Each structure stands twice: as structure tokens, then as C-alpha cells.
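Example for tutorial group B:
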């Protein structure tokens, strides 16, 4: 096929599920659901976009202060890679 693993359309406002244990103590774990609020990416020499980070709003996280520029129910998720 002409499709590659790793391509995933992301749209602000779409529901997402976090796929790894990012911050167990705070409850940001594999299976945590939320809403995509912001996307950061870099452009390569072929004008292809590569995800760097995104902000996910998770309603059950209220009261946690993760980063100064995020709301109390938002978490930043950074890029990661896995071997298959």
C-alpha cells in the first residue's frame, strides 16, 4: 500500500486516548481519554510536518498544575517513538 505507519490526522477538538503511562501519580496513564486542544510540529526539508507535542484536556485532572501556561485540566504530551 501507499500508506505508512506513523501518519495520523490530528484535528483540534477531536477525542484522543493517551497510550502510555505518562504521569502515573497524577492519573495520566495508558487509556486516559481527553480532547486535543493544541498541536506543535516541526517541518522537515520536504515540508512534511512531524509532531513535537500536543496539549490534551482531561476533565478528571482538575486541580493539578502541570505547566504555567496550561489550564489545571490540561497536560502536555511530547513525541515518543516505539520499536515494532
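The residue assignment follows.
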Amino acid at each position: 500500500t501507499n500508506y505508512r505507519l506513523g501518519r495520523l490526522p490530528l484535528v483540534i477538538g477531536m477525542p484522543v486516548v493517551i497510550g502510555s503511562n505518562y504521569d502515573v501519580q497524577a492519573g495520566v496513564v495508558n487509556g486516559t481519554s481527553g480532547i486535543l486542544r493544541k498541536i506543535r510540529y516541526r517541518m522537515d526539508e520536504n515540508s512534511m510536518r512531524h509532531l513535537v507535542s500536543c496539549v490534551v484536556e482531561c476533565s478528571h485532572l482538575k486541580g493539578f498544575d502541570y505547566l504555567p501556561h496550561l489550564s489545571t485540566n490540561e497536560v502536555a504530551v511530547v513525541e515518543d517513538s516505539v520499536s515494532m
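The chain has a mean pLDDT of 83. Compare this with the pattern of hydrophobic and polar residues in the output above.
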